[in-house]
């Protein structure tokens, strides 16, 4: 009898210990703080894919001013960057014969044998080879180059696969190195492909008349893919692994459990990512922040 009483006491003791242990676990579980997350919802919208290409400013219309005779330059009436009107006097050249006669006092006039050189077009002096007088120049040599700023263009070496997308393209974004933005339209593509880079020269014209220095580097943004109706999520809501070959989102269920959902993503632009698979509802709650390294099937608290 006493043995039975002892066994009953031991049994009761172990039951009490087990109960206390379970109660302690429940309290511990209840006291574990839940991760706080913010959520977003999928939206239907437009997305496009852009590529940026390096370009530069060129002038299509250049006029070279050459020396009509060999001789000594006696006057220089322009400076680099000047705007000149057609028929403006640019230089005066005295022939070698006239200079020789003048030096030997055979010439009756200082203007004998002096040839004026006029601007044949209006524009900016883009290059100036003769900056000071008393310089000898040979007939046919370049003295200056005048460019018509109305014929300013943007030259881009575009990959061949993009060229067909550019025909009739308008409102192309041009960004200068000082972050100034301009709009341009497609003008023409040269029918020659570089044998090494497989790029083709493409010319764009600015929509507004702008004075820019030749050879200025800039960026040209081209839309190569455009979708009108796509399911979109903010970029922050899409998670990936270190090698960026797997992508997923954390979807919050009705009982506030975050479930890992693998996705197939499409285009990415302006902080938005296109979700190709799976199909999502616009009412789905997707974790926007707080989902990084969050284990699958974690109970979360939504920050509202």
Which terms would index this structure?
about 300 residues; mainly beta; conserved putative lor/sdh protein from methanococcus maripaludis s2 fold; Elongation Factor Tu (Ef-tu), domain 3; OB fold (Dihydrolipoamide Acetyltransferase, E2P); 3 domains; six-stranded antiparallel barrel; 3 helices
Q: What's the total number of strands?
A: 22
What's the gyration radius in Å? 39 Å
DSSP helical segment count: 3
Q: What fold name goes in the CATH topology slot of the largest domain?
A: conserved putative lor/sdh protein from methanococcus maripaludis s2 fold
**What is the chains' assembly state?**
single chain
What distance lies between the first and last C-alpha atoms, to the nearest angstrom? 65 Å
Please summarize the sheet with the most strands: 6 strands, antiparallel, barrel
SSE-based structural type: mainly beta
Range of strand content = over 45%
Notes on the protein architecture:
This protein is mainly beta and 304 residues long. It is built from three helices and 22 strands. The strands form three sheets. The protein has a six-stranded antiparallel β-barrel with strand order 2-11-14-13-12-15. The chain has a four-stranded antiparallel β-sheet with strand order 3-10-8-5, with no helix packed on it. The chain has a four-stranded antiparallel β-sheet with strand order 7-6-4-9. The protein is rod-shaped. About 2% of the residues have low confidence.
